[in-house]
Amino acid sequence: MSDLVEASTTTSIPKDPTSLIHPRREPFEHGLLPIPKLIFTDPTQTLIPLKQKLIEQSSPGHRVGSSAISEAFQISIDHARLVLDTLGSILHSDSDPLVKANPDEIDAVGADIHDLVLFLYIQSYKRLLPRTHKDSAAVADVWPSTSAFDGYLSALSPLQLVRSNSRRFVPSQADEEAHQLSYLQKHLANILSLLAEPVEGEGEESLVLTMDRFEHLGFLIQFGDKGSEESNLSQSAPFFANSDPDMPAVPVPAAQVHDWILQNIASTLEHISERNNMKDNGPSNASDPDVAMTDACASSVKASTNTRGPSFIEGISKTSIVKQASDLKGSSVKVLNCHDSVIYVLAPLRYATIYGCSDATIVIGAVGKAVRVEHCERVHVITASKRVCIANCRECVFFLGVNQRPLMVGDNHKLQVAPYNTFYSQLEEHMSQVGIEATINRWDEPLALGVVDPHDSLSHPAGVSDAQAESATRIDPDQFTNFLIPRWFGGESPGSTKDNPFPLPDPYLSSQSRNLKNLAEIKQQLREAPLEENRKRELSCALHVYFKDWLYGND
């Protein structure tokens, strides 16, 4: 597409850091699916004719449902519905019909074809490799050890590499952002070719973008610290900024858009490089949202200084912490490299990531878009969420209130799923804020994809790419217990939630009833035991001692 790389009118680039261009992290962090048929050697050559075919077959609004996606890309209906669900969870506009649709309306509403092709294009993205931690000896004391379950696949999987002696950690936010911008920089001409259209009568060599098509780029890029707030990308573009709202904006040459975005990307990459140089040559700033990961043995809870980035809870070891809405900046949280701890995040969120944790219990309040749990061992995760993705985990239990099928990808081992098992006073209010339906819980319908994630930049042995990820088993109802969140953790203000808002399936409800009945009988027997007062005090003290031993043993 030579016309997109020709020089065009130069536009000045803002020096104010709040006006810099940024990649939207959500598509890259929560939108990549390891479905081989959706990863193209040459995305442009594949997607342009398929896009045209879908437009010809679609409704007047250029939207398509799972049947059309299944037929066009030769994937199963389950995978096509997964595409719709995933796209709906990462779209940039909360006013899009797909985002607002009820679960039973999603197929009828469908996805906008232009958002769909951008989503499919970035399936070619390769994640930045984990980096080696600066103090691998310190990390070795708390990082999950090699498990007895490690086998041939695990030895060559992302899990084994992350847990190898090199003690790799996730990249810093700044490094990830630079990597995503570099990807967009390299592929921008192709991306624009999926949105541009020829001028009538002038052929394919003269491509333009209308303001409406330009807005679709908001799926991948944004300006300043707008975060998840609704905003129009065209307001930041000099060629659309002063358009008369009552008149259709004049289409802009694709080459001009290409040049302008590339200049903005170059400016941001230069800004990131300068900040990295400053951090390398000076003392680190603990409040900087783009700093690298803290030492694993040091407690660290920090929030981004802007609404665009997530809040971090990282490096927690052998303790309990509680975070509520007022403690968090923005609407996303990342729990990273926490061990032997209990972590409560009791807040309404859009996205949550749990990475590299072991021997911990993590309660995430209400997440309206997506939760991703990755590289964890022996962790109990309790969350109410629209959707959940579990990757490269082992010996973990997930207590879920989830509206979409839990997604299992990568090298998972010995996972269990169970219905949601807790509550706090503001839970239903938080669920309502982020759009989670308590009447829909698909906790026991996991969908397993491939063992190998083609987005991880790692090499894998021949034949492994066809293997399917291990799914999860249901926890035995007799092993199911409620998790009690202490009342003083329940919320910053009194709420109306008095019980688990997700109905329990009958076997689990029966088990719960038996446990409650047994507890009541034991209490009654203790009350009626013919003991003298001093013996009752001794019994009470013994019970307290055993309870403390149990509590510390499960800390």
Automatic annotation (TrEMBL):
Residues 1-23 are annotated as: Disordered. Residues 289-436 form the C-CAP/cofactor C-like domain. It is found in: Cytoplasm, Cytoskeleton, Microtubule organizing center, Centrosome; Cytoplasm, Cytoskeleton, Spindle pole. InterPro entries: C-CAP_CF_C-like (IPR017901), CAP/MinC_C (IPR016098), CARP_motif (IPR006599), TBCC1 (IPR039589), Tubulin-bd_cofactor_C_dom (IPR012945). Pfam families: TBCC. PROSITE patterns: C_CAP_COFACTOR_C (PS51329). Keywords: Cytoplasm, Cytoskeleton. Its main location: cytoplasm. GO terms for cellular component: spindle pole. Gene3D superfamilies: 2.160.20.70. Belongs to the TBCC family. This is TBCC domain-containing protein 1. It comes from Cannabis sativa.
